[in-house]
Amino acid sequence: MKARKELQPIVKCNIEREKEQQSHPELAILTRATSMNVRSSDLMVDNLSNVNVVEKQIDGIIESREFDIPYHIRVCINLKINVGLWYGVRGQSSSGLQNQLASEKIIQDCYLSRPCVYMDCIKWIKHDNYLPVGSHRPKAVTKAKLRYNPIEIDPEDICRLAVEQPQTLSNYSVSDAVATYYLYMKYVHTFIFSLGTIIPMRSDEVLRKD
Predict the structure, then answer these.
(1) Which domain holds residue 104?
(2) Residue 157, exposed/middle/buried by CB under 10 A (0-12, 13-18, 19+)?
(3) Are residues 129 and 189 in the same domain?
(4) Per-residue DSSP letters for 12-30?
(5) CB 65 within 8 A of CB 5
(6) Which pTM does this prediction carry?
(7) Sign of CA pseudo-dihedral 167, 170, 176, 180
(8) Is there a single domain that holds both residue 132 and residue 182?
(9) Banded pLDDT at 4 (limits 50, 70, 90)
(10) What distance in Å separates the CA atoms of residue 105 and residue 204, rounded to the nearest whole number?
(11) DSSP label at 66?
(12) Is 183 helix (H, G, I), strand (E, B) or coil?
């Protein structure tokens, strides 16, 4: 604000000068030629001092907003790119993080954002009462619903396999990803979003509703 107050009279003079140059273009050409001669003589006398350079930069300022709004925000305003409220992330945790980031009901350790949906297959598995008994685990659900038996590796062997048998570990990773993808696309996605057309809640809340 201090910089704006100091620059306001200079900006006002610059705007008036700009208007005069637009209304009298021949006068503007004459003024530029005169200023070029004065500038060259000043630089010779002052031994290329920075004072004249700063003055010429100030003479080109016609909008004071450049000094109170950051450049990237000003560009977004000029180009009508509205990014002010794009990223609203709230934490949901039982360890106190919920109280720091948001004052909403604690559900479980997860981060939810307004513009994106966090679809967790585990939540759907736990809420599906039609699954066979003992099948409330990702691997078991994949076998029961997709008739697909993904590769299983003991967690203690993962580091060893990464060094000794990277191909086996990559097969396990791809197998897990494929199982999760098809489970989500075939069951979770259609169920949650169709239910969201009936229940007036966001998809995240429909999925996590007790």
Answers:
(1) 85-116
(2) middle
(3) yes
(4) HHHHHHHHHHHH-HHHHHH
(5) no
(6) 0.43
(7) negative
(8) yes
(9) low
(10) 13
(11) G
(12) helix
CA atoms of 140 and 146, how far apart (whole Å): 10
- For residue 121, the surrounding DSSP H or E stretch is helix 121-127
Residue listed under structure tokens 């003992």: 134
Residue type, 179: A
- Burial class from Cβ neighbours inside 10 Å (0-12, 13-18, 19+) for residue 26 reads exposed
195 with 127, same domain: the answer is yes
Burial of 141 per CB tally in 10 Å (0-12, 13-18, 19+) = buried
* Residue 56 vs residue 190, higher pLDDT: 190
String of DSSP letters for 69-101? S-HHHHHHHHTT---TTS--EEEE-SSSHHHHH
CA 167/CA 163 separation, integer angstroms: 10
Residue 77 CA, chain-centre distance (Å), reads 17
User: And the tokens for 163?
Assistant: 């060094």
Amino acid at the residue 2:
K
